[in-house]
C-alpha cells in the first residue's frame, strides 16, 4: 500500500514537471524573448502637394475636401524612412492667384535602427565562443532597445506636431461665398509658381473643383514634372463636364490659355 502511494506520488511529480516544461521549462531558466522583427519601408523622397479647393456657390465640398486632405497628410507625414512633405492649401475663387492661407513643411523621419543579428545562426561549434557571442548579443540588444524606444517616442512627437499643422487646414481654411467668378487658370498658375524650384521627384497639383471657370485669362504657365490630379470633382451636366475636364487637362499639359475661349 505504501509502495503504491509512493508510485502515485512519483507519477504526480513527473506530470507536474511535464506541465512546467510545457509552460515554463522545468529546472531551467526561461529563455530570453527574441528581438522584435523590425523592417524599414522603402525610402520615400520629398513629396510636394499643392491643393486648390474651389469655393461656393458653385462648389460646396470645400470643408469636406479640407478634412480629407488633413487626415491624409497625417498619415503620409508619419511614414518612417521618408524625407517629409511640403504642403500648400489654396482656394479657387474669383481671384485665385496665390490665395493660399495654409502652407507648411513636415519633418523628415529617419529609418528604424535595426536590432543586432542573432549570433545563433553563425556562432560555430565552439560552445565557449558561442556563449560569449550570445552574451555580447544580449548587451547589444539591450542597447538597441534603448535606441528603439527613443525612436518610437520621437515618432510620436512628430505625429503630434504634424497634427497641429494639419489642424490649420481643418480650422483655418474657410471657403467664403464668392459669386464674382471662378478663376481656375490662376489656380493652375499658383500651382506652377508654388511647385517650381522645389527639387522633388513627386509633385502634385490637386484640383477640387467643378471645373466651371467664369474668368477670361490668357498667358502661359509650366507644370512640367507636376502630376495634376482632380479630386472631389462635382458635375451635374455630363456633356459639359467631359468638355470642361478635357479643356483644363489640355491647359495643364500645354501650359497655355488660348484667347477667346
Could you describe the largest sheet, including whether it forms a barrel?
Answer: 5 strands, mixed
Report the span from N to C terminus: 111 Å
Strand content: 5-15%
The CATH topology annotation of the domain at 49-111 and 154-257 reads as Rossmann fold
Question: CATH class of the domain at 49-111 and 154-257, anyone?
Answer: Alpha Beta
Average of the residue pLDDT scores: 85
Give the strand tally. Answer: 7
Helical content class: 40-55%
CATH architecture of the domain at 49-111 and 154-257: 3-Layer(aba) Sandwich
Radius of gyration: 31 Å
Structural class determined from secondary elements: alpha/beta
Low-confidence stretches: 13-30
Tags for this model:
single chain; 261 residues; alpha/beta; Rossmann fold; five-stranded mixed beta sheet; 43% helix; 13% strand; elongated
Describe this structure in words.
The structure is a single chain. This protein is α/β, with parallel strands linked by helices. It has helices spanning 2-23, 62-76, 127-172, 184-195, 238-254, and strands spanning 47-54, 85-92, 102-105, 202-208, 219-220, 227-230, 256-257. The strands form two sheets. A five-stranded mixed sheet has the order 3-2-1-4-6, with helices on both faces. It has a two-stranded antiparallel sheet with strand order 5-7.
Amino acid at each position: 500500500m505504501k509502495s503504491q502511494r509512493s508510485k502515485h506520488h512519483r507519477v504526480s511529480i513527473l506530470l507536474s514537471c511535464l506541465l512546467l516544461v510545457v509552460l515554463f521549462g522545468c529546472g531551467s531558466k526561461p529563455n530570453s524573448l527574441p528581438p522584435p522583427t523590425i523592417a524599414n519601408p522603402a525610402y520615400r523622397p520629398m513629396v510636394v502637394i499643392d491643393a486648390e479647393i474651389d469655393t461656393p456657390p458653385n462648389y460646396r465640398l470645400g470643408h469636406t475636401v479640407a478634412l480629407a486632405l488633413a487626415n491624409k497628410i497625417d498619415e503620409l507625414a508619419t511614414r518612417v524612412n521618408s524625407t517629409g512633405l511640403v504642403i500648400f492649401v489654396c482656394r479657387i475663387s474669383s481671384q485665385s492667384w496665390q490665395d493660399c492661407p495654409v502652407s507648411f513643411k513636415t519633418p523628415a523621419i529617419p529609418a528604424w535602427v535595426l536590432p543586432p543579428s542573432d549570433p545563433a545562426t553563425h556562432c560555430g561549434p565552439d560552445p565557449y565562443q558561442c556563449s560569449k557571442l550570445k552574451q555580447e548579443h544580449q548587451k547589444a540588444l539591450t542597447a538597441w532597445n534603448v535606441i528603439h524606444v527613443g525612436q518610437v517616442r520621437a515618432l510620436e512627437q512628430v505625429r503630434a506636431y504634424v497634427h497641429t499643422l494639419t489642424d490649420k487646414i481643418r480650422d483655418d481654411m474657410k471657403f467664403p461665398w464668392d459669386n464674382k467668378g471662378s478663376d481656375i487658370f490662376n489656380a493652375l498658375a499658383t500651382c506652377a509658381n508654388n511647385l517650381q524650384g522645389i527639387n522633388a521627384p513627386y509633385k502634385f497639383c490637386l484640383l477640387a473643383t467643378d471645373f466651371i471657370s467664369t474668368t477670361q485669362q490668357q498667358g502661359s504657365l509650366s507644370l512640367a514634372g507636376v502630376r495634376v490630379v482632380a479630386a472631389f470633382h462635382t458635375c451635374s451636366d455630363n456633356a459639359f463636364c467631359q468638355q470642361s475636364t478635357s479643356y483644363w487637362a489640355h491647359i495643364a499639359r500645354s501650359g497655355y490659355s488660348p484667347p477667346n475661349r
